[in-house]
Amino acid sequence: MMELYNNTCAECSQLITNRYSTSFSMGIKVFEKKLRSPIYAIYGFVRFADEIVDTFHKFDKSNLLQKFRNDTYEAIEQGISLNPVLQAFQQVVNEYSIERELIDAFLDSMEMDLHFHKYEDSLYHQYIYGSAEVVGLMCLRVFCVGNEEQYQALKAPACSLGAAFQKINFLRDMKSDYVERGRVYFPGVDFLNFTNEDKEMIETDIKKDFDDAYEGIIRLPKGARFGVYLAYVYYINLFKKIKKVNADRVKEVRIRVTDRRKVMLLFSSALRNQLNVL
Question: What's residue 230's pLDDT?
């Protein structure tokens, strides 16, 4: 019966991923089968933590986040939780030896959103690391399956990919972050006076992250490579759409890649993968 419980908890994290992110869901579905459940578990964990600080406005977010943190470590230490998301996550943490430092950094970044509305250089880099780069490192632990040499060699590119994804999210969600949450993530940027020059500087930074990340993607283990590459392709296409519009447009609308376009990218990327020309 324990197997039934574990499978049910894993399915909960899969459902959360599917409901919240079509891009990551499609990427995970093309992973080698044994990798899918652990990555769903990681995404379910980070998604729920993010919901606490971004969505639960009528509740005591600080108390909820602290309880989530306490429950997370209790689940990891005891190897069991009645919270399905934490049950699935603790299994992955314990099986793949995911460091507490990564989990701390992630939860600390979520807490930062409760206290800061502007992120200058040091806070910005700390937030990017905790909210995005460490999530990539958690997934990399799964991909490398105990191969420490491989993990160390791919750490930097994994961080670059996480950073690129997060910075694009900041651009895409610029309006909602400012209007609904009062946040501006980019250092030195005034939302009300966001210029094309500001936008171009951010885009140059993202381009470097993508270039560095690609060098790691092509060296990933075969079972993970196509799924990560597919997420990379989706975000590159979103990046290209954002680059085509001016700063005022970014402030007005949430730019996205349509589901139809994502399906087309899936098939074209699958062909490139099959021909081994990623």
Answer: 92
> What Rg do the C-alpha atoms of the chain give, in angstroms?
18
CB 183 within 8 A of CB 177: yes
CA 165/CA 135 separation, integer angstroms: 11
Tell me if 136 sits within 8 A of 159, measured CB to CB. yes
Model confidence pLDDT, tens digit, residues 145-191: 999 999 999 999 999 999 999 999 999 999 999 998 888 999 999 99
- The total of structural domains in the chain comes to 1
Q: How far is CA 207 from CA 92, 163, 203, 210, 234, in A?
A: 32, 11, 6, 5, 14
Q: Which residues contact 237 (CB under 8 A, 6 or more apart)?
A: 257, 261, 265
Its domain, for residue 103, covers 2-274
> What's the CATH number where 160 sits?
1.10.600.10
CA distances from 245 to 110, 137, 186, 240, 251 (A): 30, 32, 18, 9, 10
Cα–Cα dist 241/249, whole Å: 11
69 to each of 87, 103, 175, how far by Cα in Å? Answer: 14, 9, 29
CA-to-CA distance for 52 and 30, rounded, in angstroms? 29
